[in-house]
Structure formats: C-alpha cells, structure tokens
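This part of the workshop introduces the protein records we will be handling. Getting from the letters to the tokens is the skill we practise here. The record below serves as our worked example for the rest of this section.

…
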Amino acid sequence: MRRLSTIFARPITWIALLVAAVLVVLVAAPLAGLVAATVREDGGGSWADVLASSLSQNLFWQPLGNSLLVAIGTGLISTLLGGFLAWVVVMSDVPGRRIIGVLATIPFALPSFAIALAWESVFRNDRLGGNPGLLASLGVAVPDALSWGALPVTLTLVAHYYSLSFVVVAAALAGIGGDLIAAAELTGASRARVAARIALPAVAPALLSGFLLAFAEGISNFAVPALLGLPVRFQTLSTRLYGAISTGDTERGYVLAILLVLVAAVVLYLGNRATRGRSFAVITGKASRARTVRTGPWRWPLLAASLALVTATTIIPGLVLAVSTLLRRTNDLDGGFTLHFWIGASDPSIAQGFRGVLSDPVLLQAGMGTIALGASVALCAGALGLVAAYVVRRVRSNVVGAGIGFLAYVPFLIPGIALGAAFIAQFGAPIGPLPSLYGTFAILVVAGTAASLPFAFQTSRSALGQVSNELEEAALVAGAGTGRRIGRILLPLSARGVTGGAMLVFVTMVRDLSLVVLLVTPATPLLAVQTFRYTSEGFTQHANAITLVIAAVSVAATLLARRLQGARRPWTES
C-alpha cells in the first residue's frame, strides 16, 4: 500500500496515465468501435457478404488482388530506383551528386495526386471521352494500359514513394565504413565480391525497410487509384472502401477497413520477421568515410540516368501542371492561354462559370481550412508526441513504457482511409452526452492527430534522446519540478528537432487525401478534397491549379523543417 502511495505521489505517474488515456481514445477506441460495428446484430452479416457471398468477388477478392499487385510493384520498383540513386549519391564519383540528392527527396513532399494529375494531363487517351492528354492531342495513339489501370497507378505511386527508399538506403550506405571495403580489397576480393559480401548485406535491412514503407503507402493510397483506376473500374481496397461508406453501405465498408489493416499489418510483420535475429553490423568503433567507387566511363551514363529520373519525377510534373493551368482548353495547346483559372471572375463561357482558384471564396475558405488543419494537427500531435516520449524516457515501468510506445506506433499500421472509417464508426454518432463529431472540424483534427502520432512520437523521442539525463537529474536535485524541468531544460534543448517534426506533420496533413476524404463535408472544405472533386467533374485546370498551391506549401514547409532540424544529410557531409 505504501509503495502504491509512493508511485501515485510522483507527477510522472499521473502524466503517464493521462497520456495512456488519450492514446486509448485516439487509437484503441476507434479500432474497437470499427470492429464492434461489424459484429453487432444489424451488421453481423457484413463479414459473410464481403468474404463469402456472390458479392465477395467484386467487394473484396478482386480489389485485394489489385491492391497487392499495385503495392508489390510500388515496393519493388521504388526500392530499386531509390537504392540506385542512393548508391549514385553516396558511393559513386558521379558529378552533381548533391543536386541529385536534393531533387530525389522532393517527390515525397508533393501530393501523390499531383503526379497523378500530371500523368493524366500527358497520357490520357479518348477512351472515356472528354479532352485527351497532350500526347493524344498531338496525334500520338496512347494505349489504354498506359492511360488507365494498374500500370499508370503503379508508376505514379513509384514516382511519389521512391524518395522513401532513397532516404533510408542513402543513410545506410553512408554508414558503411570505407575501411571495411578497403580491407576486403586488400585481400584480393573483386568489386563484385565486395558488393555481394559487404555492401549488399549491410544495406539489406534498409532495402527491406524501404520496400515495406513503399508497400504500406501503396496499398493504402486512395488518390492515385481513384484518379487513374476508378474511371475504368479498376478497384483497390481503398477505393472500394470509400465507395461503400460514401454510398451508405457502412458495415461492409468497415469490414473492408479492418481487412485492409490486417493485410498491411501482416506484410509489415513478415518483413520485420525476415531480419529478426540476424546481424548486419558494419559500424566499428573507429569512424571512417564512405569509400567512393570510381565509375570510369560509366560516370556520364549514370549521371544521365539519375538526372532523367529526378527530372521525370520532380521537375516535369510541376511544369506540366503549371502549363495545364494556363490552357484555355484542357490539354490543348492550340486553344490559347489564359490566367482565368487562377484569377478570373465568373464567366459562363469558361469552365461553366467557375471562378479562378485565387478569387473563389469557397476555395479560399478551403485554403484557410487546410492551413488551420495542418497547424492544429501539428500542434496537437507535436505536443502529445513530446509528452509521450518524455513518459517513455522517465517512467520506471517497462510495461507502461512499452504500452505507450505500442499505442503511439499502431496508427502507422493503419492505412489512412481505414483510420478515417474507424473515426466515423467511433465518433459518427453521439456518445452519451457528447454530440456526433462527424462533419465538424474537430473530427479532422482528432483523426489527423492520431494518424500523425507515430512520426511526432519518434521525432520527439529522437530529439529528447540527444539531451543527457544528467541535466534533468541535476535540476531535480536542485528542487525543480516536472513542469519546470520540461519547460526550462528539455523543451529548449530539443525544440529544433520537435519543431522540425511538427512541420513535417503539417506537410503530411496539408497534402493528405486518404485520411480526410471520408471525413470532409461541405461545411469543412479542404484543398485536397476540392482537387479530387474538381478532377472527378472534369475541371482539370482548376484541379491542377489547386494542386500546385498545395505542392508549393508542402515543399516550402519541408525545406523549412529541414532547416529547423539542422539536419545534414549523409551525402552532403564535408
């Protein structure tokens, strides 16, 4: 009894309980509500409908196959391209490596639908009617497989997510000491043997991590399959889930959300299990620079290939979108140019009277809402992630620390659109005296905080880990309370890392569509959802203009975050 009194007399205990309660509300409760909605009496038959009925082929099995096809393709090709660029930037003597490294990190800061819209502007054919893309308007016969379906969806996702693999693999390659490679070469080992026995095993975990990240993002992405797949009825689990819930078939939609979570979790588990218990250590006690590989006559072909890749995924999409917003007729260079889609007033002869994006009150409201949502989620997720990381750092109970760490990580395993469905199931109806949150700004902030928590938590944990425990212990001996120690020591010393992490959370929310597409109503417009709606209705120039605005905000915030963090990439070390 005395021991319990001592435990509950410590402020950290109450902070830990508060954090645990918040995480239960944000993470555990929505998932539990999602499951409960599918097993109650009025929704119990939804499992059979999805998995074992005459509808199951179209409801689940075919979308599952399409999702796995797209996700595996995205993971494999992203890892291949990201690994190639990482080797060029970190280990080769190819000129211009710093520029290539910077450009290779930008695609992930762009909205995935920005690249999808750029693809459609170039490769759209006349299969579905409407205005064809630039190639078709020039008389080039674009095959259906290149315009719609699995191939363009996969390639567009690759163009967006290979940046993940690049960053992960580049960091791993930078950690391979040049002394290890030099020692192997002194024994007479060939370059091929050194690569196979030292370099490749050393980066195997990074390659696998890059694949798993790209796979998880690919299987949960909604925007790209919706834009390039739905017009030809190429359904994935995310688009089928959206269709079910948006048409009122909520129980089946919830079942699809649970199955989507399970598929992503199983693949991530198998991937992590593949490297468990194996040693890939290559860092010794003595630091050494990465050894540069002389590429000889291959320098210029490698440079050309690298520049072509980053140009195709970073520069060209931006140029295509920018030019398309100036065309009077969609994807038609002969129709003349105009600034109407940016600043024009209502004109019945153009775009059915819709104003330019910078003069439309609805879009201005959506822009303010998007910025407000990003800032609110960044503040809430950053604060919660910081406190949770502090609890894990200070709490003496391994069970409590592990439990908080687990709940803070779980949202990473949940695809965005599935998490949105979970919040509808949990907060879409009144709970006791609490009103329904559906259709309010609050549910967007709460869902965004939950989705962003893994990144905010890990960033804060890393930032706090750089502050020695001795500083806090000295303040404790001097009589400083918990709040004073956090406010005067930990927060100032970790502020740059925590703030940088919050800025990246802001970027994620500004460009995210998968999480919010089910939660947004006309009362809470957001730019990403407006882009999707304009595209669905055929207003291409408006959609591309909004996308450029989102991309500009995302890239600017990403660069600011890197500056705030003061992070120097391994390939830019002098």
